[in-house]
Amino acid sequence: MLDHGRPTRRFVLKAALGGAAGLALGAPARLLAAPQAPAAAAATVNRLTGDLFVVTVPGAANVVAHVAADGVVLVDGASAATSTALLQAVAGLPGAGAVRTLFNTHWHPEQTGSNETLGAAGAQIIAHENTRLWLTTDVKWPWNGQTFTRLPKAAQPNKTFYTTGALPSGIRYGHIPDAAHTDGDLYVYFPAQNVLAIGDALTGEGWPTVDWVSGGWIGGLFGAAQRLQTLVNDQTRIVPARGPVLSAADLKAQAEMYGTIYNRLTQLLNKGRGPSEAVAEKPTKEFDARMGNPDEFVRRAFESLWAYLSPDA
Ligand SMILES: [Zn+2]
């Protein structure tokens, strides 16, 4: 989890008061739904710049919020269970008006839980076309039997793209075609703040989920870690969906790590080994102290080679 400490909590209180004052002065009516869900723990807010924040409900994924005169831009919307707490925290950011634009960095429910509320309120929901397609179908993960139900029409992305795009404010976004996590991963770059939001393409904490059902694979983690380095400089702050803010040096280290693991797993595959044998070989051993128990990750990563190399098998 992000560790922002007491100053952040004080900031949240101040921000909430500021938001109330803004309403009293006749700010436009908010598009956010009235809070109705059970109260969740208050979100933490990490202020990156005057107008750009990382908002995190405990236990939920990071959300990047940009506050401007023409409305709020969110990168991801947390889970449905934490959406109310998230949107309350966002409404309390200094100067925050209605959420006008919501990016889905990919289709997972940890990111798309505010789609229904914000879509119904008229927000633009931007996603890669592959993400929209995943959200229009039911998905089942064979490794644990977990099923995901398609979103209602109003909750689906209403503006999709294939390669890159930009908002009138200058915020840029683009596909991460390596399929590190899913085949619809996108980044959002805030040039004025030099901040890059990357969703789950890479994580800031622990091993990632390799969702090979929706196209993610170990080679994509390696590829994305390389590609994202071309979008940043030494001052860029990189915000993943999970864990603390990353730097360009972190991307470089992750590229080396995933490159090493990719090579080892490919060699095991070429020797005819299977996922359990790959786990037993401990192909991540020098990284485990920092990254945690790798078994689930290695199993999925190995399976992802099968899925990638023979997608119709
Ligand atoms: Zn995800």
Order of helices and strands: HEEEEHEHEHEEEEEEEHEHHHH
Cofactors and ligands: zinc ion
Biggest sheet strand line-up: 1-2-3-4-5-6-9
Helicity level: 25-40%
What class, by secondary structure content? alpha/beta
The N- to C-terminal Cα distance equals: 38 Å
- Indicate the proportion of strand residues: 15-25%
Rg computed from alpha carbons, rounded to a whole number of angstroms: 20 Å
Number of discrete helical segments: 9
Low-pLDDT sequence parts? 1-37
Described by the principal axes of the CA atoms, the overall outline is: globular
Mean pLDDT: 89
The main pleated sheet reads as:
7 strands, mixed
Number of strands: 14
Structure report:
By secondary structure, the protein is α/β, with parallel strands linked by helices. It contains 9 helices and 14 strands. The strands form 3 sheets. The protein has a 7-stranded mixed β-sheet. Strand 12 and strand 13 (195-199) form a beta hairpin. The protein is globular and about 60 Å long. The model is unreliable at 1-37 (pLDDT under 50). It binds zinc ion. Zinc ion binds next to loops. Zinc ion is lined by residues 106, 108, 110, 181, 200.
Question: Layout of SSEs?
Answer:
Elements: H1 5-24, E1 44-49, E2 52-56, E3 63-68, E4 71-75, H2 83-91, E5 99-103, H3 115-120, E6 124-128, H4 129-135, E7 139-140, E8 147-148, E9 159-161, E10 164-166, E11 172-175, E12 186-190, E13 195-199, H5 218-229, E14 237-240, H6 248-270, H7 275-280, H8 288-291, H9 295-309
Helix pairs in contact: 5-6, 6-9
The structure holds zinc ion.
Zinc ion (ZN) binds at residues 106, 108, 110, 181, 200.
